[in-house]
Amino acid sequence: MNNVVLANIFRFLGLILLQGLVLKNIGEGWEEFPYLFVIIYPLAIILLPLRTPRVLTILLGFVAGLLIDGFYSSPGLHASAAVFMAFCRPYVLKALEPRNGYNVNYSPTAARWGFGWFMRYSAMMLALYLFFYFSVDAFTFVYLGSILLKTLVSLITSMIFTLIYQVIFNPVD
Amino acid sequence: MFRIFELFLRLSGFFVFLLLEILCFILIVRYNHQQRVIFENSTNLFSAWLQRKTQSVADYMHLAEVNDSLVNENANLVFKLANTPKYAHGNIDSILWSKPDSNYQVIPARVISNSVNRFHNYILLDKGSRHGVTPHAAVITAHGVVGIVRRVAPSSSVAMSVLHLQTRISARVRNKGYFGWLNWTGKDTRSFSLNDIPKDALVALGDTVETSGYSAIFPEGIMLGTIEKIKLEPGSNYYSLDVKYSSDLSRLAAAYIVKDLQQAEKLELLDQVISDDE
Predict the structure, then answer these.
(1) What is the pTM of this model?
(2) Domain B93-262 listed as CATH 3.30.230.10
(3) Partners of residue B27 in chain A, C-beta under 8 Å
(4) B86 has a pLDDT exceeding 60
């Protein structure tokens, strides 16, 4: 029980530092192709235990987003996307529910629900996150094409990094 | 009661979500340059749209009044036409008429927004560079001078109203030739003052004040107002005249933008002389 909480706190802090200090620099200074963003810190929210209260999930999303905004110096942008993604988490989980339901004591990880399930789950969540983030970044739907392209490219690269994270850590809870 | 509480608990996630998104939105608009610009532009577009809509209603209300003043103006023009030796071509959007000494282009415009209750008032007009409006063009109505165009966009322009503390119109007393500067006093929409008229000038109450045409902005001879009070400060060589303005700017619906086609030339010439002196 306490192990789960501690694991989540470490994951939360570790992913934010990784995102803000390392992954932020990928794709930067590549002006000809401004579509490449690697964003995996939402895993901190994605991997929260299933029994986490919904309000707490959203609040943690907000805090994580604000911290990332501190690194990216874009107050509110990442926070709004993370809040949106955290808000949508129950719906995504509902859509991907296994035939015999969830065991609420588990976390939504590959070790518990299978590799394919986890990849689909994290891809959907990241897609929601990235689409919202790039929409707010553009702040208009005039450039919907560019928003969708950014979402797609960043989703692919972010999923590659999610896969690497999964292979290295293979978190159970 | 418990039911309501239960409902609230069930929706609490949504409320928290909404609250935090609003907070994020405020942060984004306040601290991110690009998003703030887009946000402000959109709100400006929206308020301009709203103003246009309310204006179209107001226009309809003022139809009778506008009609009257147009009839008057028509009569005036017919009279002028009969008395003008040389009258040149015109088209739907603009009339070009030639006086012996200068050419003016007249562009009819509608007033989209107008203010009279500040010290620096501006008028938004629905004609812009696409229709030939340029900065420093004069804005007049049948009753007199209204303002000067300051900024021009493709299909709208902003004119500085004469109700602006920095207004200085070169004016003269009709048929007497004395000229001075007309300023707005800032008190009410029709009280202006005419300064720099020498004290030996023969001015009388009720004399008409009109534009002098010296400024390369206004054509000469446009009505400005009538002299209401003559004051002479002790020891001063110049009159300070209270002028009752002829046009009521608080009831403005349509105006003409008058462009001096030789303005650039005139100003350039003046600039040259000034720089020669320096």
Answers:
(1) 0.54
(2) no
(3) 75-76, 79
(4) no
